[in-house]
Amino acid sequence: MAAAGTNGADPTGGTHESVSVGRKRSHAESLLPIKPMKEHVLPITPPLKKPEEEVEEEVEEEELDDEDEERKLKRQRVRTREYFAELEKKMTICKPAPFDYDEEAIREREACNYSQKITLEMARAGKAPRAVRVYADGIYDLFHQGHARQLMQAKNLFPNVYLIVGVNSDAMTHERKGRTVMTEDERYEAVRHCRYVDEVITACPWTLDDEFLEKHKIDFVAHDDIPYTTGSATDVYAHIKARGMFVSTERTEGVSTSDVVSRIVKDYDVYVRRNLARGYSAKELNVSYINEKKYRLQNKIDDLKKKGKEMFEDIEGKRTDLIMKWEEKSREFIDAFLMLFGRDGRLTQYLTEKKDSVMMALSPPSSPKAGSQSSEDCSSPPAKTSRFDFSGRAGASLVDDDYSDDDDEEPESH
Fold it and tell me: Which InterPro entries match (predicted)?
């Protein structure tokens, strides 16, 4: 049996050689028959077919997803364009506006589709297919807040405005209106550094014609409503108004270049003296020799007055400080005086304590009289005195010791 067990034979006729175990079988286990294991195969179910309605719904959902993605892309493109448009506007604030002959202005003008005409209603409603090109012109001498406010109004006429500003030349201005304080180059630079301006046209014409409007692709012209005649009977902007291209702005009252010049002319002497004090020569100010000396003398007098006023103010300040210090010291002095000589002061307390001794020192007792002394002697016996005490009977001793001849001569009278 041991041999049979060793060889792996089964007494029932079965074999178990093909079975591998993880441990060594015992002798009893080797006698038991091993049943073959059955293979368990999972059944494979065929895929379920989706109904046609569900398939159509999925297709529609996919199409909707595609449409949503397209819409998202379109929105992203619009936002990108708006971002770059805002960035371009901000860039104009960080640098001066270009001139009409600069490359940046030319590129902007060529990109504008002027065949798309923009009406006033479209521009105000914000439905313009492109930027609205607005034109404003002027001399802009001594550029002030009135000029800046006019350009700000022109820039804000419509939602999307490209502001073009024309500046007249010196020759045109001197011929039509008069002399200017600033040169044309100075006026050009003053305007192009205004934050509302997108482009500057130098030496612009006095009257706008169709050729000029088409060349610069101008949609609207901005100016105040007051007819601008400059000596002639017709308004310079009459034909612009007739074409419906005129947009009005408000004029700033109380400030203009003429007002500024009037202030300077009114206080001419003050400004001449001001510039002489700042180092300008009489030749630069076109002042004669006598007037120069007069203005310089007036400046010296004003300087002396100013220094005298400052000195008096300084003395006044020192006097105020001295009075304040004296008041403080006087308070301390009064407090010390009252502490010493007041009703409850130290001296009063001292005098009260030393009243008897002080009174004895100030008023000593008076010497006794003779009559009073004799009466006292008669009423009371004399006190016993010592041998050398003469205070008791001073008067009697003087009488007793009187050795005159009056007593010896009394009998002779009888």
Answer: CCT (IPR041723), Cyt_trans-like (IPR004821), Pcy1-like (IPR045049), Rossmann-like_a/b/a_fold (IPR014729)
Q: How many Å apart are CA 122 and CA 125, to the nearest integer?
A: 5
Give the type of residue at 368: P
CA distances from 214 to 52, 208, 414 (A): 63, 11, 178
Contacts of 152 (CB under 8 A, 6+ apart): 196
pLDDT digits (tens, 9 = 90+) for 151-196: 999 999 999 999 999 999 999 999 998 999 999 999 999 999 999 9
Q: Is this model's pTM higher than 0.85 or not? A: no
Separation CA 209–CA 220 (nearest Å): 13
Residue type, 338: L
- Taking the C-alpha atoms of residue 229 and residue 235, their distance in angstroms, rounded to an integer, is 5
Pairing of strands 246-249, 220-224: parallel
CB 109 within 8 A of CB 217: yes
3-state DSSP call for residue 298?
A: helix
Per residue in 275-299, pLDDT (tens digit) is: 998 999 999 999 998 888 888 888 8
Q: Of the candidates 131, 338, 134, which has an alpha carbon nearest to the alpha carbon of residue 223? A: 134
CB 137 within 8 A of CB 176: no
What are 137's strand-pairing partners? 166
Distance CA 182, CA 141 (A): 6
| Residue pair 163/197 in contact by the 8 Å Cβ criterion | yes
Query: CA 2 to CA 14: how far, in whole Å?
Result: 17
- Residues paired with 224 in a beta bridge: 249
The residue among 113, 130, 112, 110 whose CA lies nearest residue 122 is 130
Listed in sequence order, the DSSP H helices in 8-165 are 27-31, 52-94, 103-111, 120-125, 145-155
